[in-house]
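task queued by scheduler; priority normal; single chain, no ligands, no partner chains; default sampling; output format set to C-alpha cells
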Amino acid sequence: MTSTVLFTALIVAVGLERLAELVVSTRHTRWARDHGGVEVGQGHYPAMVLLHTGLLVGALAEVWLFDRPLRPALAVSMLAVVAASQALRWWCIATLGRQWNTRVVVVPGLGRVTTGPYRWLAHPNYVAVVLEGLALPLVHSAWFTAVTFTILNAWLLSVRIRTENSALAALSANAPEAAVRDA
C-alpha cells in the first residue's frame, strides 16, 4: 500500500470524525434552542464549513496531483500533532458538554465553564483547529494546503472569536453570572 493511499485513509478518517462532530453539534444546537439559546454570527458559518472542507479536499488534491513526497520524520511528527489536536478537541467537547457547538449559540443562565482545558486557555478548541490545520496536510508534505489553510483560518478565527466574545459579553451584561464558553 502506498503512502498516498494511507494518507487518503487518514483524510477520510478525519472527514468521518468531522461528520461525528456535526452530529454532536446538531444535537447540542437543538438542545440549546429548546432552552432559550440564541445563535449569533451565522454569516461566517458557511465560510467555516467551506474552509474546513477545503482543508481535507486540498490536502488530498495536492498530494495526488502534485505527487508530494512522504518525508518520514515530518510525517511522524505531524501525525503526532494531529493526534494531539484530536485529543484536545474531544477534551473540549467533553468538558463543555451540551454547551459545545460548531455554531455560536448562547444559552441564558448557563455558567461559564472553567474546568478542563478552559482552566488554562480561553479558546482551546481553536488551538486544536490551528494545530490540525497546519499538521494534517504536512503529514504528506502538502505545504501549500497547510499555508493556505493557516492564513485563511487566521482571518476566520479572528471573526469567530470576536463574535463569540461579543455574544458572551452581551449575555454576561444581561445576567452577570451567566455565560457560555466556546459555542
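post-processing summary
- The CA atoms of residues 31 and 164 lie 19 Å apart.
- The chain has one domain: 3-174.
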